[in-house]
Design brief:
Layout (H helix, E strand, L loop, with lengths): L1 E6 L6 H10 L4 E8 L13 E4 L2 H14 L7 E5 L5 H11 L6 H8 L1 H7 L7 E3 L3 H10 L3 E5 L9 E3 L2 H8 L7 E5 L5 E8 L6 E9 L11 E5 L5 H14 L8 E10 L2 E8 L7 H9 L3 H8 L17 E7 L7 E4 L10 E6 L17 E7 L2 H18 E3 L7
Parallel strand pairs: 1-2, 1-4, 2-3
Antiparallel strand pairs: 5-8, 6-7, 6-8, 9-10, 9-12, 10-11, 11-14, 12-13, 14-17, 15-18, 16-17
Helix pairs in contact: 3-4
Length: 406
């Protein structure tokens, strides 16, 4: 019988994992490993969840229990719910011979320089910088450049740079050899999400169009996306590009992916790809549009192969979309005013929360003050409604006045 250790960075409930095991008929026991600095106990009442003070303690425990049960290694699975865990779990799988994506397979999806050197596909100009002088020179010959960690995750610590002050902010406490610099791309940005199945190397893939782009949060703009109809011309082109791309990434196991693209007329330009499900409300919208839950397929792919039995495609005729509205830069929220939402906007879910203190530049694309998920009849209508919701939200946030404004 399988023993499955789940690194619960997403902090899903025990009931969530119980339902997941039932849905895919997984026979075995599981233990949830979770960092919870504010908890004064080590295990949950049920005994299914064990808490740790930090990541080191968690991985130390995992290493010891795997080593203790090496004789039953074929029945052990280790599952991560976040991209931060990809490399670490890959190491343990490789070291102990555990089923699942190994370290070398994982690192190609994390190391942006190796990723772009690996593939034969049109992409934006990119450079692994050797010195600050080279970085300043690039800034002077390009209107905008993007500075990102070589092995970053979830758009964290990515900077769009236009002047020396912003270069200084981007490079603060960072080694010059640890960054990749890319040409900033204006215009339409898209993402494809899906799963690669091991047995046939078949790819199940769905395309969506970003509202603004994946780095909009760096300019304090809303970020979101809308699903495309599966058989549309643009969707087919993006899916074909994704298939050609992923065939260049060797892997012995099933895995999920999130890839980003720019479309320039007839040209499709590759940005980057990650071995994870998409952020924001991407998975919820794909589930609404296509009936596919990529979060669960991501978990499943680390336990056993994903195959056709697990893919229950059921496309809706409507278009799903989501948007995150950020807090105003250098502003502190006092309250939300009452919103007047037009009746034709079909809101599936919404969430608002008041963050404490003054918001500086956002560090991640998933930071937001208001979030909406909607369903409409067309791509154009969905985009327009999401942008309208963002505008309404921005007008109904009551910010505290600073000394100059009083």
């Amino acid at each position: 019988m399988l023993m499955i250790y789940i690194i619960n960075t997403m902090k899903e409930s025990e009931d969530y994992y119980k339902a997941f095991f039932r849905e895919f008929d997984i026979k075995g026991n599981f233990q949830i490993l979770q960092i919870a600095e504010d908890r004064d106990f080590s295990v949950s009442e049920s005994g299914l969840t064990k808490y740790f003070l930090n990541q080191f303690e968690l991985y130390d425990y995992l290493d010891r229990v795997i080593n203790k049960n090496k004789k039953n290694i074929d029945n052990i699975r280790i599952v991560g719910t976040d991209e931060f865990d990809v490399d670490n779990l890959g190491f343990f799988r490789e070291e102990y011979g555990i089923y699942g994506k190994k370290y070398e397979d994982s690192v190609l999806f994390r190391d942006k320089y190796r990723m772009k050197k690996q593939i034969n596909f049109p992409s934006s100009d990119f450079h692994k910088i050797k010195s600050i002088a080279e970085l300043v020179h690039m800034k002077n010959i390009k209107e905008k450049i993007v500075i990102k960690p070589l092995c970053g995750v979830s758009s964290k610590d990515v900077f769009v740079v236009q002047n020396n002050s912003e270069i200084n902010d981007a490079m603060l406490n960072r080694n010059i050899s640890d960054v990749l610099v890319e040409q900033y791309q204006e215009g339409g940005m898209f993402h494809t999400d899906g799963v690669v199945m091991r047995d046939t190397r078949r790819i199940i893939c769905f395309a969506s169009e970003y509202i603004n782009n994946g780095l909009a949060y760096k300019e304090n703009k809303p970020i979101g996306s809308v699903t495309l109809d599966y058989n549309s011309s643009l969707s087919s082109r993006l899916i074909k590009a994704t298939e050609l791309l992923l065939k260049q990434f060797p892997s012995s196991e099933s895995y999920v992916f999130h890839a980003e693209w720019f479309v320039r007329g007839e040209d499709i330009v590759f940005n980057e790809v990650a071995s994870r499900f998409g952020g924001g409300l991407i998975c919820r919208c794909l589930r609404k549009k296509y009936g596919i839950d990529l979060v669960k397929l991501h978990l499943l792919s680390q336990i056993r192969d994903v195959d056709d039995r697990d893919i229950k495609l059921n496309e809706s005729s409507t278009i799903s979309g989501w948007i995150y509205v950020p807090q105003g830069e250098n502003k502190e929220i006092e309250s939300f005013l009452e919103q007047d939402i037009p009746s034709h906007i079909n809101i599936i879910s919404e969430k608002h929360h008041k963050k404490k203190g003054v918001q500086r530049k956002l560090s991640r694309s998933v930071d937001y003050i208001s979030a909406y998920e909607i369903v409409q009849d067309s791509i154009r209508e969905t985009r327009e409604c999401l942008i309208k919701l963002a505008e309404i939200t921005e007008k109904t946030i009551n910010y505290k006045k600073n000394d100059k404004e009083k």
